[in-house]
C-alpha cells in the first residue's frame, strides 16, 4: 500500500461539519438512480440533483449511486433533500475514515473500505464507500467509477435472485456482500503469494525474499486494519437493533460469518509469514556455518603442511635432512600422510 | 494441509441463496436413512428423495446421511421437503465454511470440520460435515463416503449403549462426539511428531528439521483454525438454549470439555514448537562458534611459525644465524616451544 | 521524548489536596476570558482573578484560558470562586497526570496530553492541558502559551461555523478536537519517518539505522501511552452520562472515532518497526555470509597453491623435478589448472 | 513430563457412559472410609462395597478414599449406591481429564490434577484425583496410594484444628488445599532450578544449558496447563452457588487466592526463562565475536610480514638488497616495526 | 530481588487458621497507638495488649501500628479483642501473600506489598503490610520498623492537612497513598537505570550490559507482580461497596489513577528493555561483520601476493625470469599493482 500523508485520516484544524473532500481531484461525476419493486424497474441518470427528492416514494426501493466526491456541492444538496446530518456529509467526503456504522432516527450511515489488489505492484489499494440506508432507499457514495457493483445492477435489471422482491435492507446487504467478496479475492492472491514465498525460502532464499516477506506482512497489516472495523460494522448490523433492518437480518449474519472467516485467514497468514522469516534466518545461519566449515577444514589441512615446506626452504648451512638421498620423497610422504590424516579426522567429526 | 484457492472459503459475486457446490466433482452419491426407536430399527437406501418425507414421523428417530454434495438437486429437494432456509442449503453446499451453529424455529443447523491425518504427506485433511437437528431427525451432509460414522451405525444396529432409547439430540451428540474423537487422533499423531522433532533438534539438527518444524507449525495453525469455532459451536450447544436439546445437554457439556482440552493441547504444542526453533538456532550458533575456535587456534599456532621459517628462507648474503652450527635445531626448538606455548595458552583460555 | 524524573508522574509523600506545581518555573502568566453567545462576543484580559466570578452568568458561554501554572495562588482562587474540589486543583497543578475524566455534580474535569513534535530532535514533546466544563463555562489550564487554541479563538471571533450558536459542551468539543488534530500531525511525521527508515534499511543499513528505529519505537511507545487514556476519556464523553453534555454528544462520538483510528495507526507503525528490525538483522547476517564466502573462496584457491610453491622452494639436494627442463612451466600450469578448477567448482556450488 | 499417547486425554470411538479405565493396570486396590463428627471417629477398611451404603447417615461426615481405578466394577457399584451419573463414573475412570467441576442436584463432582516432582528426571508427574462432595460425605478416587492425604487423616484422627467440628465441605476444602500445597512445592523446586540456570547461563553457558532451559519451559507449560483449570474450579467453588458449600466458603476463597498466586509465579518463571535464552544467545554471539577478533588480529599482523619474508626468499639474480651488509637486520627491524605498529593500531581500535 | 524458597508464598501441609509466622525471626516488637480527633491527639506505646480494647471508642480515630510479626501471640490476642477472623490473622502472619482485599461485616482486611529499592544491589526489596480498617480504627501490621509511615504520623501530630478532621477511611487512604508513593520512587530509579542502559548499549555494549538488562527486566517482572494486585485492591476500594468507606472515596479514586499510571510506566519500561536487547544483538552482529571485513580484505590482498613471492622462491634450475636484469623490480611492481588494485576494488564495493 502506498502510505501518504493523506491516509493518516483526519483533516486538521477545521471546525466539524465543514464539508471538504480529502481525496484527489478527479473528472468523473455521475449520479445513477435505480428504482424498482417486484413488478417494475427503471434506471435514471440524474442530471439535476433536485430530481432525487422524487425517489422518496416508499412503494419502490431506490438505489442512488453517487460517483465523484469532489463535487462537494452535489453531496451537500443531497444531504439537504434527504435530511442527513452535517457530520455524515463530512464523513462521506473525508475518504480517510475508519469503517463504522452510525444509527440515526430515520437512516443508518455506514462507511466501508473497498479493497482491490494491484497485480503489478503487489499492493492493496483502498477505496472508501459510504452508504446510507433509509426506509426505501440506499445511497452509495464513492470516488471512482469502478465496476464492483455491476453484478448487483444486473441482478436487479434481470430480476435474478430475490432482490426485486425485497426491501432496501436486502439491497444494502447485497452491496456489502460484494465488498466482502473482494476481501476474499485479495485473500486468494495473498494465499498464492505466501505459497510462492514458502517455496522461495526453502529452495532459493535471498535478501529479496526478506523484502517480499516484509511487503507481504505490510499488506496483511493493511488487511487487518480494514477487516477488523468491517467486522464490527457487520456485528452491529447482524444484531438487528434498527427498525430499518428486518427481513435481511439473517443475511447480515451470513456476511458477518464471512468477515470472521476472513480475519481468521489473515491471522493465519501472519503466523505463517513470521514463521517464514524464522526459517530464512536459520537458513542463512546454516549456510554461514557450512562456509566456515569449508574454510576451517582447508586451513587446518594446508597451513601445517606449508610450515613443513617452509622449514625445508630455510637456508641454514647445516641441515642434515637436505643432504639425505630420500629426504625429498620422505617429506612428500609426510605431507601426504598428515593431509590424509586430517581428512580422516574431519570425516569422523562429521564436518565433511 | 494443501492450501488452494478454494479453501479461502467464499463464493465471490453470487447472490445469497444461490445453490452452488464449491467442492470437486465426485462420483459417490448415496442417501442412507436409519430409522429407529427403543423397540425397532430399519435401514433404508433412499432411491427417490420424496421417500424422505415419510421419515418425519415423530415416534421414531431418523438419521438421514447424505453423501455426495455435487448433486445440488437432491439437496435442494430435501430442503424443500424439510422446509430448510435457502441460506442453510447454500452453506451445506459451500464446503469452505467456518464451523458454526444457527438456530431456526424448528431445527438447528450445524457446520463442522472433520479432520483426518494423512500419514504419508504429514498433512491434515479437512472435510466439512453439515448437520441439521430436527424434532425427531438428524441430517448429515458430506462430500465423501468415509467410514467415520460407522461406529454409530453399529451402536444403533446392535442396540449398544443407550442410543436407541434416546432422542435425536442424543444421536446428534454421538455424531459430534465421533468428530471430536478424530481431533484427538490427530493430536496423538502431532504429539508423536513433536517428540520426534525434539529428539532431532537435540541430537542431529539440520535444515530439514527446520522445515519439519515449519510444517508442524502449519498443521497446528490449521488445527487451531478448526478447533476454535468447534469450541464455539459446542459452547452454544451446551448452554441448552434450544427446546430441541433436552436430555442430551449433559453430554454436550462433556464434549465441550473435550474441545477445551484439545485446544489446550494445541496451544501447548505451539509453545513447544517455538521453543524448538530457538534451540535449533542456538545449536547452529554454538556450532559456528566451535568451528571458529578450531580455525583460530590453528591459525594462531601455525602462522607465526611460518613467518619464522620464511625469515630463515630469505636469501640475504649476511645472515649470521645461517652459518651457525646449531642454527637449524635451535630454530626447530624455537618453533616447538612457541607451538607448545600456544597450545598451553589456549588450554588455559578453555578454548581447547 | 526526554525522560526525566519528573515525568514519572506523582508527588511523593505529600498529603492529598496540597497544591504544588510540579513543572518548571516559567515567566508567562495570563488569564484570557472569552465571553460569547450567538449575538455578541467580548475578550477580556483578566487582571484581578475576582473578575472571574462575573463570568458565571448562564446566558453567555465563557471560555477562561489560564496560562502559567506556577501561579498556584491564582489557580487556588479560581478554584474557590468556581467551587472546584481540592483534588481537582491539585491535579491541574501536577502536570504529570495520566489523561482522565472525572464527573462532579456541577462540572466535569478533564486532563489531556497535548503532543507536539520537535523536528530537530525527532522527539515528541508532551504538555498537559486540564479542562473544566461547567454549565456555561469552560476552563483551560496549561503551562505555556502555545498557539494551539488560536483557530478556536478565531472561529468565535469571526462567528465561523456553528460555535457561537452552541453551548459550552460544543466549545469543549472544539478544544479537544484541536488536541486530537495534533496527534494526527505527529502521526504524519512518524509516517514519513518510517518510510524513510524502510528505505534506509533496504538500501543502506547501518548501526545508525538501528538507533533510529529504536528512537522511532520509543516515540511510538510514548504516543500509545498518551493515546490510550485519551481514548478512554473520549469513550466516556461520547456515552452521554452527564447532563452537561447534550447537543455536542454526536461530535464527541466523532472525535472518539478519530482517536480509535489514531491508535490503529500507532499499532500499525509498531508492527512495521518490529518488522524493520528483522529485515535489518537478516541483512547483516546476509552480508556476513557474503564476506565469509569471499574469504573462503580466496583461501581455498590460494592456500593449496602456496603449498606447491613452498614444496619447490625446499632446498633438498636431490629433487629431480628441479632439474627438469620444463619443470617450472609445468608447475605454473599445474597451479593454473588447480586455480581454474577451484573457480569452476565454486561457480557450480553457486558460491560465486 | 513424559508425554505419551494416553495423555492426550480422550477415549476415541466409544459411546459416552462406557466405563473404561484409561490408566495402566496396577495392583493396589483399597477403599478406606473415615467416619467422624465432633464427638467421635472411626476408620474402616471397606471389604464389601455394599458396606458403603451405611455411610449415608447425615449425622457424621464420611470420607471414602478409593485407591485403584482398574477395579471398574467397584467404581460402578459405588456409583449405583450413591446414585452418581454414568458420565461422572466415566470421568472418574478416564484419568486424562481436564480439571473441572460439575454441579448435580445432590452432589458436586470435581476432577483435579495432583502434581509431584521427580527429583531425578526433573520432570513433573501428574496424577488425577476425582472428588465427589455430597451432603455428609466426600469421595476421593485415585490411581495410586500416595501419602498426600495423610496429614488430613491425621488431623481428623487427632482432632487437630477445626476439621472434626465442621461439615463435609470443610473436609473437601482440606483435601483440595493439600493438592494446591503440592503446586507450591513444585514451584519451589522450579524456583531453585531457574536460579541455577541463571547462574549457569552467566558463568558457564553450554548447549546443555539450552536443553535444560527447554526442559524447564516444558515443565512450566505443564504446570500452566494444570493450574489454569484448577483456578477455574476454585473460582467456581468460592462463588458459593451450591447449597452443599456453606461454612467452608471463605476457606475456598483463600485457596482460590493461592491458585492465582501460583499462576502469577508460573508466568513470572516463563518470562525469566525466555529472558535467559536471550542472554545465552547474546553470550554465544559475543564469544564468536571475541574469537573472530583474535583470528583477525593475528592474521593482520603476520600475513604481511610473511609476504616480506617471502619476497626476500625469491631467487632473482639481481636483488641488490640481498647483497647489502645490513640488509638482514634492516628487514628484521622492518618486520618488528610493522608488527608493533599493528599491535598499537589494534589497541587504539580497542580490539585488544 | 532475592528469590528464596519462602517467597513462593504458601505454607505447605498446615490446616487453615493455624497461626504461623513465615518470615525471619527478628528482634523488633512494638505496638504504637495514635488516637486522635479534630480536637485532640495522643500517642501511646502499648505495653499490654489488653490496652488495645480501650481504643474501640468510636469518637476518636485510632491507628494501631504493630511492628514485629514473630510475636504470634500478640497478633492472636489483638485478633480476639477486635474479633478478627482466624484466616485474617493467618494472612497477616504469612508474609508471602498476594496483595488482596477482603470485606467482612465490620471491617475490611487489606494486604499490600511495600517496595523499597536497594541502591547497592540494584534490587527491589518487598515487605508486606497488612491493614485492617474498622469503624473508627486502622491496624497496620508489618515485620520491620521502617520509617515509611513517619510522614503520616507527623501530619497527625502537627494537624497538617485535613487528616485530623476526617475518619478512619481517610487515614487508611493516607497510609496506602504513602505505599503507592514508594512505587513511584522505584519507578524513578528504574527510569534512571534504563537511561543509563540505553546509553551503554549505544556507546559501549558488553556482556555486562546484557546482564544488567536482565536484572532490570527481573526487577520489572517483580514490580508488575506487585503492581497488578495493588491495582485490583484500589479498584475495589474506589468502587465504594463498603459502608466503612465514605468521604475518602474520591481520594481512593485518585490513588487508583496513580496505580494505573505506575503500571503504564512499568509496561513502557518493559517494551524499552526488550528493544535494548535487540539493539545490543544487532550491535554485536554488526561488529562481527566489521571484523570479518577486515580479515577478508587483508587475506584477499596478501595471500595472492604471497603466492607470487612463493613462485619466485622455487628452486627450479630453468626459471628464465630469475635471470632477467629487471625481474625483481618488475615483480615488486606487479605486487604493488595487484595490492593497490585490490584496495581500489574493495573501496568500490564499499567494504573499506
UniProtKB/TrEMBL annotation, chains A, B, C, D, E:
TM annotation in the entry: 294-314, 326-346
Principal location: membrane
Localization of this protein: Cell membrane; Membrane
GO cellular component, one term: plasma membrane
Alphabetical keyword list: Cell membrane, Ion transport, Magnesium, Membrane, Transmembrane, Transmembrane helix, Transport
Membrane topology summary: Multi-pass membrane protein
Gene Ontology MF terms: cobalt ion binding; cobalt ion transmembrane transporter activity; magnesium ion binding; magnesium ion transmembrane transporter activity
NCBIfam families xref list: corA
Function per UniProt: Mediates influx of magnesium ions.
Protein name: Magnesium transport protein CorA
Organism expressing this protein natively: Acetomicrobium thermoterrenum DSM 13490
Amino acid at each position: 500500500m502506498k502510505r501518504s500523508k493523506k491516509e493518516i485520516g483526519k483533516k486538521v484544524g477545521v471546525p466539524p461539519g465543514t464539508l471538504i473532500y480529502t481525496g484527489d481531484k478527479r473528472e468523473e461525476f455521475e449520479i445513477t438512480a435505480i428504482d424498482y419493486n417486484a413488478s417494475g424497474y427503471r434506471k435514471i441518470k440524474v442530471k439535476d440533483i433536485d430530481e432525487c427528492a422524487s425517489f422518496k416514494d416508499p412503494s419502490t426501493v431506490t438505489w442512488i449511486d453517487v460517483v465523484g466526491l469532489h463535487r462537494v456541492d452535489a453531496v451537500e444538496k443531497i444531504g439537504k433533500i434527504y435530511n442527513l446530518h452535517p457530520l455524515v456529509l463530512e464523513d462521506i467526503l473525508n475518504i480517510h475514515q475508519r469503517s463504522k456504522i452510525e444509527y440515526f432516527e430515520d437512516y443508518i450511515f455506514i462507511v466501508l473500505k473497498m479493497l482491490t489488489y494491484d497485480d503489478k505492484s503487489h499492493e492493496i489499494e483502498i477505496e472508501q464507500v459510504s452508504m446510507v440506508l433509509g426506509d426505501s432507499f440506499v445511497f452509495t457514495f464513492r470516488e471512482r467509477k469502478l465496476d464492483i457493483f455491476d453484478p448487483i445492477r444486473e441482478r436487479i435489471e434481470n430480476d435474478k435472485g430475490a432482490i426485486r422482491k425485497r426491501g432496501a435492507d436486502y439491497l444494502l446487504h447485497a452491496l456489502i456482500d460484494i465488498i466482502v467478496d473482494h476481501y476474499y479475492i485479495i485473500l486468494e492472491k495473498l494465499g498464492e503469494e505466501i505459497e510462492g514465498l514458502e517455496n522461495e525460502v526453502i529452495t532459493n532464499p535471498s535478501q529479496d525474499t526478506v523484502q517480499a516477506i516484509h511487503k507481504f506482512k505490510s499488506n496483511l497489516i493493511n488487511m487487518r486494519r480494514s477487516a477488523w472495523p468491517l467486522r464490527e460494522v457487520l456485528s452491529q448490523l447482524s444484531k438487528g437493533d434498527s427498525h430499518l433492518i428486518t427481513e435481511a437480518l439473517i443475511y447480515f449474519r451470513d456476511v458477518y460469518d464471512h468477515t470472521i472467516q476472513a480475519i481468521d485467514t489473515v491471522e493465519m497468514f501472519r503466523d505463517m509469514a513470521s514463521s517464514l522469516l524464522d526459517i530464512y534466518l536459520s537458513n542463512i545461519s546454516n549456510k554461514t556455518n557450512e562456509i566456515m566449515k569449508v574454510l576451517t577444514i582447508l586451513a587446518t589441512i594446508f597451513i601445517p603442511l606449508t610450515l613443513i615446506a617452509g622449514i625445508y626452504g630455510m637456508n641454514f648451512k647445516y641441515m642434515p635432512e637436505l643432504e639425505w638421498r630420500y629426504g625429498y620423497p620422505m617429506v612428500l610422504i609426510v605431507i601426504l600422510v598428515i593431509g590424509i590424516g586430517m581428512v580422516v579426522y574431519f570425516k569422523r567429526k562429521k564436518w565433511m
